[in-house]
Amino acid sequence: MDLAGAALDDGLPSDRLLRVTVAQWSAALVWAAADGTIVGANPWFAQLAARPLESLIGRPLPALLDLGGRDWSAVWDGAHGGRAPPGIGTLCAPRSEPVPVDLHWQTLTDGSEPLLLCEMRSFDERERAEAVARLQQDVLELVATGRSLRLVLDFLCRQVETCAPELACSVMLRDDENRMRVIAGPSLPAGYSAAIDGLEIGPGVGCCGSAMWRGEAVLATDIANDPLWAGYSDSALMHGLAACWSNPIKGRDARVLGSFALYYHEPRGIAPFHRRLVEACVHLCALAIEHDRARAEINRLAYFDTLTGLPNRQLLTDRATAALALAGRTRQPVTLMFLDIDRFKTINDSLGHAVGDELLVEVATRLKRLFIDGDTLARLGGDEFVALLPGCDAAHASLLAERILATLAVPATIADLTLTPTASIGIAVHPDDGGDFDTLLRQADAAMYRAKQAGRNRCHFFRRDMNEQAVRRLEMEAALREALSRQEEASRTGGDGPFELHYQPQVRLKPPCLHRVEALIRWTHPRWGMVSPVEFVPLAEECGLIDRLDSWVLETAVAQLARWRAAGVPVPGMAVNVSAVRFARGDLPDQVHAVLTANGIPATDLTLEITERLMMTEEVGVHDALDALHALGVTLSIDDFGTGYSSLSYLKRFPVGELKIDRSFVKELDIDAANRPLVRAMIQIGESLGLTVVAEGVERDTQHRMLEAEGCGIGQGYLFARPMPADALAVWLAAEGKVWTDCGPGCCFSI
Questions:
Q1: How many domains does the chain contain in total?
Q2: Do 155 and 288 fall into the same domain?
Q3: Is the pTM of this model over 0.85?
Q4: Residue 336, C-beta contacts closer than 8 angstroms, at least 6 positions apart
Q5: Which of 99, 323, 340, 553 is 20 to 30 A distant from 79 in Cα terms?
Q6: What residue ranges in 84-161 does DSSP mark as E strands?
Q7: Alpha-carbon distance 312 to 296, whole Å?
Q8: How many whole angstroms separate alpha carbon 256 and alpha carbon 279?
Q9: Does 224 or 745 have the greater pLDDT score?
């Protein structure tokens, strides 16, 4: 099928009128076969391609025509499936600019081979002007309808690349630290965008950095050899960017806001049409950026306090309404904290409003550091601040209030004066103190006034029981600090302190023998008596005392194991609980090694019990500590197994040697039939991974027999022995404990 030239082969349609029509058609026509080979063309196509008509026949059309990112097979399949919409492409001509063209596709067949007819029309000046006008209109419409700045600038870049497919566009913004930030660059390689994002603006930082620095356009016709690109060219060239033209975007005050850049894939200069596009785009970018900043300023004035920059009452109300609605569905607590600066009116009246304002800014700055993402700290006006704390219960609110009071109590120098701000804090908790924001705010305000009446510089809960808990918590923290100091002093002098370790045996079920003992801390307070570890250990974690507590327990327990062995008391090993917080310091392996060495205890005789929560952390330091402890020979045991996270992948990822089934599963093992399959599954998990399994809370002989029948290796609980002081354990081993220590012949610890 020969379709070359205006005068078609006489073997094909002989109608002269048809041949003349094709030859003189005002658009370029080209026919291609399935493999993309040109089988015919008219003179207009030859003129656009700047090649003799005869030389085009037999050449691959995709080599001459850039299809806008699509490959030939996709165009062919789409056209024959009725899915090839009109598009824009670029026709490459020798020794001249690429020609952007509109493309329209039509399938043809004469009964033999199918063909694809492409009709293309080039952009003339009028069409280019219309394209720029459409671009301006579309971008202005997006700006007017309030679309985000990122979306507007991304759309602008994409439209420019549609009009001139040989280009890649980018828009950079200048941030407050005088650095370049990529906000739009849809066709730039992701690796290149990442490489230039955040670079400091300067006179030799490629085209964009230099354009923003100079405030004028910068052109690099050959990035590889341009001195402005020294140090940056490798990244551009690696991603196929060979030339760049960047223009500064300036605001109405002539301040540089950013840059608009065109990238080319080969060294070259600027086409006139590209200049026209850039002139329009730089103006549109400036308009969009300034509109976005104006809108942000309006939003700031509407929702933020102008003095401190904190959210105002309106924004607080909006966020509180949303948080309370969510809490109603999820049953999570929401706390409202009302804070009023003590004696602020006296400062305003005596030192002036300027000093008062400085103090408010200082207070706001200190407070902002104490809140996490998701919390809202707002200024209602005057000296009143309110914090909205989604997911925060009364216990954590009490701790936060303590930190606030301590943070504010640091003296501040304002206007050459030393002032020590204090505050009164009222706390109300949803849903018990109110179901809506106005009620919670009123209750928190009332609680704040009670705090002022009680002497200022303190917090008060709206409900009496919560207030009593907060007071108890404050008292216990102070008592815990004092007890730790006394204990550390007693350890140095050899005296007795308020803390004591009790030891509970862990026994092997079959054959029966002592496996090891677990060290459990006890605290006796002169007024409260015996304080439960369930109460004071979490408090020690929250107030930063757990490191000292864990260190004392470890050193005391290992030293006691050494004393037992020196006295001939047969204790095979020691288990010690270690808080997850303790691992954050990074020195635990070194301390363990030092304590074992000092007491002559093999590392294999020490077991550290850790929680499932610790195994879930992604902190590299924690993983390193676990590996280091395992390398020493210390056994790692997962305490309270089954009560934490559902993922068990950590059992194969980390060097765990033992699982401890939580007492909640063992408690009703012989009562609730549903518990037995769960316990059986835990034992089987341990066995399949080669781990020792310890069951906690064994109190009845029936539980013992069922655990033994399921293959559980170790038991711990009141059935065998209660936790006891060191001296009592020695007596137990010599008397009642004999049945659990008689391993038979060859047991090195049998009595």
A1: 4
A2: yes
A3: no
A4: 320, 386, 387, 388, 389, 427, 428, 429, 430, 437, 440, 441, 443, 444
A5: 99
A6: 87-91, 99-109, 114-122
A7: 15
A8: 16
A9: 224
Radius of gyration of the chain measured on its C-alpha atoms: 39
3-state secondary structure of 110: coil
- Determine, yes or no, domain membership for 325: yes
Write out the two tokens for 363: 């207070």
Q: For residue 284, what is the domain's CATH number?
A: 3.30.450.40
Q: Where are the alpha helices (DSSP H) in 331-412?
A: 344-351, 353-368, 394-408
Choose the final residue of a domain: 462, 488, 507: 462
Integer CA distances (angstroms), 314 to 301, 380, 428, 506, in order: 11, 9, 20, 60
CA atoms within 13 A on the CB side of 714: 23
Mutual angle of helices 546-566 and 588-599, in 10-degree steps: 20
Q: What is the CATH number of the domain that holds 660?
A: 3.20.20.450
Q: Residue 258: which of 247, 273, 242 has the closest Cα? A: 247
Token readout for 423 is 């505050």
pLDDT digits (tens, 9 = 90+) for 631-652: 999 999 988 776 655 456 667 7
Q: Nearest Cα to 575, choosing from 661, 656, 516, 509? A: 516
Tokens representing 320 are 């509180």
Q: What is the pLDDT of residues 371-395, one digit of tens each?
A: 988 899 999 988 999 999 999 988 8
∠ CA 246-252-253, nearest 5°, is 95
What is the spatial distance between Cα 440 and Cα 269, in angstroms, rounded to a whole number? 67
Q: Name every residue whose Cβ is closer than 8 Å to that of residue 490 and which is 6 or more positions away in sequence.
A: 496, 497
Question: Could you list the residue range(s) of the whole structural domain that residue 39 is in?
Answer: 3-122
Tokens of 324: 């309370």
What does each C-alpha distance from 135 to 40, 160, 561, 712 come to in angstroms? Answer: 36, 8, 81, 75
* Amino acid identity for residue 448 in this structure: M
Distance between CA atoms of residues 212 and 215, nearest Å: 5
Distance between CA atoms of 153 and 162, rounded to whole angstroms? 14
| C-alpha count within 13 angstroms, C-beta hemisphere, residue 262 | 29
Residue 412, domain member (yes or no): yes
Determine contact, residues 66/89, Cβ cutoff 8 Å. Answer: yes
Here the CATH number for the domain that contains residue 18 is 3.30.450.20
Torsion of CA 391, 396, 399, 401, to 10 degrees: 40
Band of residue 37 on the pLDDT scale cut at 50, 70, 90: very high
Shared-domain flag, residues 434 and 380: yes
Domain final residue pick, 276, 301, 326 = 301
Nearest to 680 by CA among 712, 655, 650: 712
